[in-house]
Amino acid sequence: MTRDTEQEELAQKITKGRKAQLLVIFVIALLFAIRDINHAGAAIYGGVLSLVVSLTLSFAVLKATDVSKSDPKTAMGILYVSAVIRFILILVLFAIGIGWLGFNSIPLVVTAIAAWLTGIIASR
Predict the structure, then answer these.
(1) Contact yes or no for 116/54 (Cβ under 8 A)
(2) Which residue has the higher pLDDT, 7 or 47?
(3) Of 50, 58, 55, which Cα lies nearest the Cα of 23?
(4) Nearest-CA neighbor of 61 among 5, 117, 7?
(5) Nearest-angstrom CA–CA distance, 84 and 61
(6) Is 47 exposed, middle or buried (0-12, 13-18, 19+ CB in 10 A)?
(7) What is the pLDDT of residue 5?
(8) Phi, psi dihedrals of residue 2, rounded to the nearest 5°
(9) Do 27 and 117 touch, CB atoms closer than 8 A?
(10) What's the confidence (pLDDT) of residue 11?
(11) What's the distance, Cα to Cα, between the start and end of the chain in Å?
(12) Is the pLDDT of residue 89 over 80?
């Protein structure tokens, strides 16, 4: 399998995962909207948070895959740095959503976790 084919296949899996995430975010936000419209906003924020983190991971994996053929050590470094960036990003985005914007934490966290898990499962 050529490098271009591998990259294309990986990109297709990533796209499939993001589409599944969007569907889950929409459904969960709709369910929370039945309870309270503010919960729907929190759910959407949690879903967007999950998408941002997933896209960060996707970019890192694509870059590491490209670099790994010529320099596996650098590819591992890319993935490690990406993990640190994602961790900080999650902390900051949760703090903004719960602290500054005042979203209810339950719909925010439930949607973020559900969308993130959906993205992982659908991308396989």
Answers:
(1) yes
(2) 47
(3) 50
(4) 7
(5) 14
(6) buried
(7) 77
(8) -80, 165
(9) no
(10) 77
(11) 18
(12) yes
